[in-house]
Specification:
Structural class of chain B: mainly beta
Number of helices of chain B: 0
Strand content of chain A: over 45%
Largest interface: A-B, 23 and 27 residues
Shape of chain B: globular
Largest sheet of chain A: 7 strands, mixed
Helix content of chain A: under 10%
Oligomer: heterodimer
Radius of gyration of chain A: 13 Å
Number of helices of chain A: 0
Chain lengths: 122, 110
């Protein structure tokens, strides 16, 4: 069965960086994309970006351009999301999700990881 | 990119039908047949319920249906059940972002 298992919770200080991993299993990793979505406490969902697991092409949300990098390791079927220059308003649960397309970004995310809480606090 | 507009809350009694709207513009909802709906229970990851406006993934109850008219998409849940109580989010492809979510709707089953 398809599973996305994310790394554990993180506590970071303002200005630091965080790297969250998302290990996929149960499907051919390179046949899909991976999107990252975050949810601040008590708030709605925010799309952060997408990476093609096929060729590594990326598409990031404009507000995060320059602070976020998404990568994949096809040898281990793992996706990574690194966010730099952390601020208090980056405190959120970060989700990875399988995008049904490896060619272009779509809003169709059919399997989700369990979420990773990132807390930014001094 | 502004979030799509959803009502903050809707409610219904067991067995009834409810509809949640998702209003955008011609640059997102109205311009593409790429609208998805997600269900999220407290403390859980979202679950895909509808994709491409009206398609249900395997395993999703046929009590859930989606439609679109102009710049507004809708999710209808018929035969409301207690387990349907959750937050619901719409999402659309956009010409700029390229993905945007709605603000979310809290469904209460009375």
């Amino acid at each position: 069965q398809v599973q996305l298992v994310q790394s554990g919770a993180e506590v970071k200080k303002p200005g630091a960086s965080v790297k969250v991993s998302c290990k996929a299993s149960g499907y051919t990793f390179t046949s899909y994309g991976i999107s990252w979505v975050r949810q601040a406490p008590g708030q709605g969902l925010e799309w952060m970006g997408w990476i093609s697991a096929y060729n590594g092409n990326t598409n990031y949300a404009q507000k995060l351009q320059g602070r976020v990098t998404m990568t994949t390791d096809t040898s281990t079927s793992t996706a990574y999301m690194e966010l730099r220059s952390l601020r208090s308003d980056d405190t959120a649960v970060y989700y990875c999700a399988r995008d049904v397309s490896f060619r272009v970004v779509t809003p169709v995310m059919d399997y989700w990881g369990q979420g990773t809480l990132v807390t930014v606090s001094s | 990119q502004s979030a799509l507009t959803q009502p903050a809350s809707v409610s219904g009694s067991p067995g009834q039908s409810i509809t949640i709207s998702c209003t955008g513009t011609s640059s997102d909802v109205g311009g593409y047949n790429y609208v998805s709906w997600y269900q999220q229970h407290p403390g859980k990851a979202p679950k895909l319920m509808i994709y491409e406006v009206s398609n249900r993934p395997s395993g999703v109850s046929n009590r859930f249906s989606g439609s679109k008219s102009g710049n507004t998409a809708s999710l209808t849940i018929s035969g409301l059940q207690a387990e349907d109580e959750a937050d619901y989010y719409c999402s659309s492809y956009t010409s700029s972002s390229p993905v945007v979510f709605g603000g979310g709707t809290k469904l209460t089953v009375l």
